[in-house]
Amino acid sequence: MEGAEATRILMGVNESTIKGYPHASISSSGAFDWTIQKIVRSNTSGFKLLFLHVQVPDEDGFDDMDSLYASPEDFKNMKHRNRTRGLHLLEYFVNRCHEIGVACEAWMKKGDPKEVICHEVKRVQPDLLVVGSRGLGPFQRVFVGTVSEFCQKHAECPVISIKRRADETPQDPVDD
Amino acid sequence: MEGAEATRILMGVNESTIKGYPHASISSSGAFDWTIQKIVRSNTSGFKLLFLHVQVPDEDGFDDMDSLYASPEDFKNMKHRNRTRGLHLLEYFVNRCHEIGVACEAWMKKGDPKEVICHEVKRVQPDLLVVGSRGLGPFQRVFVGTVSEFCQKHAECPVISIKRRADETPQDPVDD
Questions:
Q1: Which residues of B touch A (CB under 8 A)?
Q2: Rounded to a whole number, what is the distance in angstroms from the first to the last CA of chain A?
Q3: From the CB of residue B145, how many other CB atoms can be counted at a distance below 10 Å?
Q4: B115 contacts B54 by C-beta, under 8 angstroms
Q5: Which in A158, B8, B12, B60 has the greatest CB count within 10 A?
Q6: Where is the UspA domain (chains A, B) (predicted)?
Q7: pLDDT tens-place string over residues A20-55
């Protein structure tokens, strides 16, 4: 098994919808922690994490799609004065990977998150897709849709959906 | 991360339905290989695999439920003269784990596989459930049901469903 190519794990990550909550949503952050603790463990050289953040069009005026970030320096060298929340989100995960010592890449796309994630799976062919999920009940799901259910059906690779812990659910469970 | 408790992965495994095909179904065997290659990798001490085989009642006259097997010796010491196919199935996976050097346990239960798997998840609280899937289309699924879809919805832990590779699909895709 030594010398085999690293297991490439694509993670769909998004920003928190809670006002004042910094950067990563509770479910994205939980999915990352779970992946590090339960899958990567001490075997940091065996894995590469790929972070994909999909921004819904017209939510932010953002024109830095399709750039690739692989180290904290990549962010510092950026010309942009206004680092958007999306960039901060990716920076958060890239920084955490560098602290832990696991290789990573991060990028952004625009579009419908569930469609874009499945499209990117087809393009980059990861070994595994990890998505966070709010763990909503059927009634709440009707209104917000769930990216994780769509990806489990349509993504062309194995998918793990990590539900948010019950004790981390905010007052309005649709928030994240 | 060193010294942390091993990640416990529960695998639902079943026998092949193909006449003359030895022991493990194509999808169970594929899910095992995937888990070793992509998740466990060289970090054999970081993981413990738990194999659960659910036998549908009245399919076999089998009375050795609830026994626990953790090494090849456990099988040799058995009093039973007729090793059933179910036992051979578990023996296959336990032997493979011992060759690889990863800790394991295996046991059998009777019942409806999807219900029993979710019940056992609640009881043993694994970190992850891995199930193989035939990757059937919607038309075929109506007739055979899918354990993996049910578990993804109902199991109280993260679930990965590993689809059978297209080039391993037997003549009748409902076979496995």
A1: 1-2, 4, 7, 34, 36-39, 41-43, 46, 127-128, 152, 158-163
A2: 38
A3: 12
A4: no
A5: B12
A6: 28-161
A7: 666 789 899 999 999 999 999 999 999 999 999 998
Does the pTM surpass 0.90? The reply is: no
Report the distance separating Cα B105 and Cα B86, nearest Å.
15
Q: Write out pLDDT tens, residues B82-121.
A: 346 788 899 999 999 999 999 999 999 988 999 999 999 9
Across the interface, whether the CB atoms of A158 and B34 are under 8 A apart is answered: yes
- Residue A24's beta-bridge partner residues? A15
Length of chain A: 176
- Closest chain A CA to residue B159: A160
Which residue in chain A has the smallest CA separation from B38? A7
**pLDDT exceeds cutoff 50 at B1:** no
